[in-house]
Structures are given as structure tokens and as C-alpha cells.
Amino acid sequence: MGMNVGSPLGGSGDPEPMVEINTTPLIDVMLVLLIMLIITIPIQLHAVNLNMPVGTPPPQDVPPQIVKIDIDENSVVFWQGVAVADAAELDAKMREVAALPSQPEIHLRPNKDAQYAVVANVLAATKRVGLNKIGVVGAEQFLDR
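Now predict its structure.
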């Protein structure tokens, strides 16, 4: 019996090509690039810029007039408790109020089941006619979800 003794290089004398790629330097370069990218990206702030009043408010002898706008669960808009027929009527009422010498406070009270588009349209209408004193009332109902 004979024993086949071959060379450790595979018998033919030619070395076999290396099939595996060393990925360690590639990973190191990618980590350095990732760190550089993270450092150079400016911090994104998710904030709303508001122009806040400066100084003390003037004394008020007469309490401000309050206009209540309600939006029910069916997305029907109510002006001082009376249903508004369409957006044009709401816009006309807002223009009347905006023309007053002393601008009233607008209290917007949307129902949590109302459509967002209706609430957004009312807010856009207040901005369009120049009403600045607006507040959302009853926001605690949204915390129950």
C-alpha cells in the first residue's frame, strides 16, 4: 500500500486563490464616515417659533369679549352656540369680529372626534382675517386616548 503524499499547497504546486475578503478595514472606514456624518449634520429642532409679548400687559378695566367656536364630533362648526352653514358664513363672522376696535378672544373648542381638516380650516381662517387672540380650550380631552 502506498501513501499519496502531496505538497501542502494542493498537489499542483500553485497556491489556491484566497476567496475571503478582509472586511475589517471596510468596517472601520464606514464607522469613521458615519461618525463624521453625525457630527456634521446640524441639529434639527422641532419647534414652533412664536412672537411672545415683551413687558407687562396693560391693565384691563373691561373684561375682553369672548367668542366661542365649537366643533362637534360630526365636524359641524358652531359660532357662539349657533351652527354655521358653511365656510363663507364663518369667514364673514370672523371678518366682522376682526373689524372691531378691541379684538375679542377666540376660544376654539374642537371635539376629539372632529376631523382635523375642519379644525385646521378654522385656524387658517382666523389667521387669514387677522385674529391673533386665539386659544384652544379643552385640550385635556385629547389626553384620554
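Residues 24-40 form the longest helix (17 residues).
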